[in-house]
């Protein structure tokens, strides 16, 4: 491991998904003459994305702009405001809009924006290692040792776990935190063990792609061609949004009653059929039926989350993205939050006052800035999940479900008020406001 103040810190990033690649790209962009070295360990044989489409919002676009990727994003993305409809009846109706505008694009395009950006640099500070699946690590006051599935090991001065919802970094961190607590407070030690694994949201998502040309041919004014749409119904919801002029990304989610927090039984991804989806939504409004009629292939994904982590950081190790705060897809915010984590963390690590010696304090600043925001968005997303599936326990208190089902406008006004509250996080601060806060904390805490 490196001498604390003489050799530039070696940053290990485990996981080359959207979060890990953004971290590497922002580090390269803001590194100045600091000459950090970055080792990026990815479990897969190359950078890749599962799933087809992604929605991103204004604050994420700001970060892409800061990386010089704003124009490239404009060329690849569509601007798609969102509409929420009550759809589990013949005559559906719109009850909420998010007009400020999301941007949608194919996932692989977003990932390649970051990957291409990394390749553009001369590569002197970044070393990528594929087919390296982290199993666990140990750390001391000087650095971190990582152990991989292929039997190899590597060391670094700090480790960032951007290894997704099933994060081996989070598993190791919370196992170690629990072990340290065991002698003094067994109740807390048990609670910490509960954060090692993600928890099931009690929902499954059927994901599929629709040929937009086919929809245009038969239904040229179909809402799915131009707007993101959340198709809501009791116990289920659909989602659709165009990700290119020819492709609509879509899905159906179904809630298992009482499933929230229960152990997931069976595989997290299984093959499914168009008929499975059609059976779930057969009484729904025509607009959604048209999409379901055009499914070619689909698979069913168990949706898990990482809820309320009490810390994202332990010593020289930090969690980022889904590893820290995987969430339901109902706000389209998971990737955006990973990108925002990466922006703040990379700017902290690239800051001139952060040395190899004070890395643990610097990582704590990241935790203080990012954890309350991202943990709050996990909760908002879960609330939106249950409201979209009209779960009585999550609808505004005192609501009359029968009236709501029949479309009574005063009951829907109450739902709208709750949704305005959920979505208000978009009107909040931008990444550079948080970066300013982080700089103030660095100035007051680093020695
Ligand atoms: C159905 C669905 C729809 C969604 N829609 C949206 C949306 O519209 N908008 C949005 O913002 N978000 C959406 N999300 C969430 C979004 O996909 C995630 O929040 C985002 O991909 C998280 O990025 P990440 O880099 O943290 O993790 P990931 O993208 O999961 O990347 C993790 C990387 O780590 C690698 N890895 C895993 N384990 C190891 C290991 N042990 N060692 C080394 N490498 C490892 C993986 O191979 C992968 O490359 C959706 C999620 C789901 C399930």
From TrEMBL:
Regions annotated as coiled coil: none
UniProt entry tagged with the keyword Oxidoreductase: yes
Residue ranges of domain FAD-binding in the record: 11-381
Keyword Iron-sulfur: no
Keywords, ordered alphabetically: FAD, Flavoprotein, Oxidoreductase
A Pfam family: FAD_binding_3
Domain of life of the organism encoding this protein: Eukaryota
Family annotation (PANTHER family): FAD-BINDING DOMAIN-CONTAINING PROTEIN-RELATED, HYDROXYLASE, PUTATIVE (AFU_ORTHOLOGUE AFUA_3G01460)-RELATED
Protein name, UniProt field: FAD-binding domain-containing protein
């Amino acid at each position: 491991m490196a001498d604390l103040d003489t050799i530039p810190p070696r940053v290990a990033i485990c996981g080359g998904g959207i979060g890990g690649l953004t971290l590497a790209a922002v580090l390269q962009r803001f590194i100045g003459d600091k000459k950090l070295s970055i080792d990026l360990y990815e479990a897969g044989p190359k950078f890749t994305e599962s799933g087809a489409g992604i929605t991103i919002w204004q604050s994420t676009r700001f970060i892409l702009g800061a990386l010089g990727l704003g124009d490239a994003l404009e060329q690849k993305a569509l601007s798609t405001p969102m509409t929420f409809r009550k759809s589990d009846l013949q005559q559906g109706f719109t009850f909420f809009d998010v007009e400020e505008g999301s941007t949608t694009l194919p996932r692989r395009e977003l990932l390649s924006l970051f990957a291409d950006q990394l390749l553009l640099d001369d590569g002197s500070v970044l070393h990528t290692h594929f087919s390296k699946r982290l199993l666990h690590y140990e750390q001391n006051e000087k650095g971190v040792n990582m152990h991989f599935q292929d039997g190899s090991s590597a060391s670094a001065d700090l480790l960032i776990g951007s290894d997704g919802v099933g994060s081996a970094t989070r598993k190791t961190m919370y196992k170690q935190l629990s072990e340290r607590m065991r002698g003094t407070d067994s109740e807390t030690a048990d609670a910490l063990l509960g954060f090692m694994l993600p928890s099931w949201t009690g929902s499954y998502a059927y994901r599929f792609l629709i040929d937009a040309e086919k929809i245009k041919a038969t239904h040229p004014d179909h809402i799915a061609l131009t707007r993101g749409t959340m198709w809501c119904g009791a116990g289920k919801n659909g989602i659709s949004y165009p990700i290119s002029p020819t492709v609509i990304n879509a899905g159906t989610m179904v809630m298992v009653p009482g499933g929230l927090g229960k152990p997931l039984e069976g595989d997290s991804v299984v093959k499914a059929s168009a008929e499975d989806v059609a059976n779930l939504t057969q009484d729904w409004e025509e607009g959604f039926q048209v999409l379901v009629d055009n499914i070619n292939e689909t698979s069913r994904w168990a949706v898990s989350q990482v809820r309320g982590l009490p810390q994202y950081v332990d010593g020289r190790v930090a969690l980022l993205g889904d590893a820290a705060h995987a969430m339901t897809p109902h706000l389209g915010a998971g990737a955006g939050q990973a990108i925002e984590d990466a922006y703040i963390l990379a700017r902290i690590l690239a800051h001139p006052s952060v040395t190899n010696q004070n890395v643990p304090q610097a990582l704590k600043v990241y935790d203080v800035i990012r954890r309350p925001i991202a943990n709050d968005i996990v909760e908002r997303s879960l609330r939106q999940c249950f409201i979209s599936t009209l779960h009585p326990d999550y609808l505004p208190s005192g609501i009359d479900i029968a009236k709501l089902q029949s479309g009574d406008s005063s009951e829907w006004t109450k739902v709208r008020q709750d949704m305005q509250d959920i979505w208000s996080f978009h009107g909040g601060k931008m990444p550079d406001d948080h970066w300013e806060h982080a700089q103030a904390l660095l100035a007051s805490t680093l020695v």
